[in-house]
Amino acid sequence: MPSSSGSASASPAPVVLVIEDEPSIRSIIRAAVESEGSVIYEAATARTGLELARSHKPSLIVLDLGLPDADGALVCAKIREWSATPIVVLSARHDEAEKVRLLDAGADDYLTKPFSTIELQARLRAQLRRAAMGPVRGGDVPYAFDGLRIDLVSRTVSRDGQPIHVTPTEWELLRTLVTSAGRTLTHQQLFDAVWSRSHGDAQQYLRVYVANLRRKVERDPIRPTLIVTEPGVGYRMSLPTAE
Fold this sequence. Notes:
- 39% of the residues lie in helices and 20% in strands.
- The chain is α/β, with parallel strands linked by helices and 243 residues long.
- The protein has two domains: 15-132, Response regulator (Rossmann fold, 3-Layer(aba) Sandwich), CATH 3.40.50; 143-237, Arc Repressor Mutant, subunit A (Orthogonal Bundle), CATH 1.10.10.10.
- Strands 2-1-3-4-5 form a five-stranded parallel sheet, sandwiched between helices. A four-stranded antiparallel sheet has the order 6-7-8-9, with no helix packed on it. A three-stranded antiparallel sheet has the order 10-12-11.
- Helix 1 (23-35) crosses helix 5, helix 6 (168-179) packs across helix 8 (202-217) and helix 7 (187-194) crosses helix 8.
């Protein structure tokens, strides 16, 4: 049965599906989700989780990698065959190659166990905001936050009304990150979107261009808050709620 601690409102509460076989972990996630006012459904197996995903069409799915009846990455890929619902994967594995495998399978983000409730809530909020924007944001609606404005139609960037010059390659990288805001993109995913596989090492190219972009769009490039590094995996655009 679902549960929710949110009060009635004009808009329905987000529905979060948790597919996790450990009761103690489910309890932690339940408390975190309910404190945000969301409705939660729970499944202890991949089979039940897939059934609930189809029948309840959740706003967000939290998926454990080590399920008793199926590998979480396979479950993720299965869901991606018919749904674009954001998926946050939980894993006790710290291997970076494993994290890349999950993202390539269709996961939007991941958290390594053990994780803090604050970190979990922040990641879930980011994915729910992204889901609320719809699968594709209207190109005529500029992204605006903290004085920074990114207009996908005019292909312009400005800070506090002052134009920021970006090269064509920097623009493509920025556009890719912004339109997938809240989602962790692997080095290879970003590389393929902006360049081609024939150019060489993805991490080396990205490191240079991300550093250049940060100098232009971050208030403090040394302590970036917009273009966030996921060590050994890739980058994530962390955007606050648009102005």
